[in-house]
Write a structure and sequence with these properties.
By secondary structure, the protein is α+β, with helices and mostly antiparallel strands. 35% of the residues lie in helices and 26% in strands. The strands form 3 sheets. Strands 7-6-11-10-9-8 form a 6-stranded antiparallel sheet, sandwiched between helices. A 5-stranded antiparallel sheet has the order 2-1-5-4-3, sandwiched between helices. A 5-stranded antiparallel sheet has the order 13-12-16-15-14, with helices on both faces. Strand 15 and strand 16 form a beta hairpin.
């Protein structure tokens, strides 16, 4: 049966098309009934006398009354509303005929099996061809469903306005469709400028990993845990490397019979500071363990010179590719007042340049190393402090020439020299070298190298005392 009653009043509530009383527009009425039955909201309508003229399937689902049972009834009294509440409910609904716009009310309706349902209604006047009120339509839904919808909308708006983490909706082509303010700031671009652009234009590095994660979510669904992705963001100051902790959810259309992916909801938070602190703490623990292990191994050596090479070998792990120990030629040490004496250094130990292994002791002949004036190791001894050096961005052949000119292995591109000091005297320098696959030495690296140099200096000083 149709969800509307075909009467004169019903015709006034239908499409504004010319009607022929003798030949009613059955096609238009059927179309109206189909539209009403397909709505997600429950809908009913009353004529000017309060008689129910329309009743769709959603209203039947909520209350249990069919269209055949509802259409034609006078108001809600006695069947959809308790008798005690009928006058108030119908008065509030029919008052919409004289009020501008829509009115929102909440009240309890009765189901066919005698239960009660709290609904929220929106009612408005329906006007006839002459412009006068001809009835009222009322759309209603269960209050908890309406509240859930409002909460979803409020959550969506809050995420895209006030959220303290980045929120990006990415379409099926992996292009941003909606971006909140926090995400726009993290990407270093305006909220409207980012829309529809490929991710490769927004990020300098990390694009492949991010696109792979988005593609996986589109195909397989949300991952079970957040993922940490390192990216490089372009800023006016240059590229900045950031670590984002990302969560992903697949978005599907609620209107399709089968899930149709609309894109991916991407939420992220910048955890760069925490990640760097975690990495630094892990690095400090590792280096502390290496110093401890080296001290225990060195304590078992009868020859202090061998203990010095043990400290060098343990320090090399995860820190540098090559290491050298150079000692002051002659007496083996310099007093602080001997600044006028030219510094010459003798190679005492060096890590093997081929296969890995322990650093052998050298320099028994006492020949000075052919260091040119201004060499970082000589500067280190003269200044009694650490010196860092790097070849910079040059071709590989130029880098090789730079290393060989300083008597270092040909693959060295970064150097850190730490002074060897013991009992107020300078004994020489220890040099740590890194290849092109590593970053340059930083201040934290210099502190670690100085700690290692102190232990090597003590071992070399003891070796000299024993020989004397």
């Amino acid at each position: 049966m149709s969800a509307s009653r075909r009467s004169g009043t019903t015709d006034e509530l239908g499409p504004d098309e010319p009607e022929q009383p003798d030949q009613p527009d059955r096609d238009g009425a059927d179309l109206l009934a189909a539209l009403l039955d397909g709505m997600d909201a429950a809908l009913c309508a009353f004529d000017a006398d309060g008689v129910v003229t329309h009743w769709n399937r959603e209203a039947e689902r909520i209350l249990g009354w069919t269209a055949a049972e509802a259409v034609g009834r006078q108001g809600f009294a006695g069947w959809a509303v308790r008798e005690a509440d009928a006058e108030e409910v119908e008065g509030r609904l029919m008052s919409a005929m004289q009020a501008p716009g829509r009115q929102v009310h909440e009240f309890a309706l009765l189901t066919k099996d005698g239960g009660r349902v709290l609904v929220r209604t929106q009612s408005a006047a329906v006007r006839g061809p002459d412009g006068k009120p001809a009835g009222v339509y009322c759309a209603f839904s269960e209050v908890h469903a309406q509240i859930d919808l409002e909460r979803s909308i409020a959550l969506s708006e809050a995420l895209f306005e006030d959220a303290s983490w980045g929120v990006v909706l990415v379409d099926a082509d992996l292009r941003p469709a909606v971006v909140n303010a926090h995400a726009a700031r993290a990407l270093g671009i305006g909220r409207t400028s980012v829309l529809g652009r490929p991710l490769g234009e927004l990020l300098a590095q990390g694009v492949e990993e991010l696109e792979s994660a988005l593609t996986h979510v589109l195909a397989e669904g949300a991952p079970p845990a957040p993922a940490e992705i390192w990216v490089s963001v372009r800023t006016p100051e240059g590229e900045q490397r950031r670590c984002w902790r990302c969560g992903f959810v697949r978005l599907a259309s609620p209107l399709a019979e089968e899930p149709v992916p609309l894109g991916v909801g991407w939420l992220f938070n910048d955890v760069t500071a925490a990640k760097q602190a975690e990495q630094e703490a892990s690095l400090l623990r590792f280096r502390g363990n290496q110093l401890h292990r080296a001290a225990r191994a060195a304590a078992e050596c009868e020859d202090p010179s061998e203990a010095a090479t043990i400290h060098l070998d343990f320090a090399l792990a995860g820190f540098a590719d090559h290491a050298l120990i150079d000692r002051v030629a002659g007496d083996g040490s310099l007093a602080d007042g001997d600044s006028d004496v030219p510094v010459r250094l003798v190679r005492v130990a060096a890590t093997p340049s081929g296969a890995p292994g322990p650093s052998p002791l050298t320099g028994q002949a006492g020949f000075p190393v052919r260091y040119a004036e201004g060499h970082p190791a000589l500067q280190c001894v003269e200044r009694v402090g650490s010196v860092r050096a790097s070849v910079g961005s040059v071709p590989a052949e130029r880098a090789r020439e730079w290393a060989l000119a300083r008597q270092w292995p040909p693959d060295a591109v970064h150097a850190l020299c730490a002074v060897l000091r013991s009992r107020g005297r300078t004994l020489g320098a220890v040099t740590f070298l890194r290849g092109a696959g590593r970053s340059s030495f930083e201040r934290s690296d210099a502190a670690y190298a100085e700690d290692v140099a102190m232990r090597i200096a003590v071992a070399l000083d003891l070796a000299g005392v024993l020989r004397g």
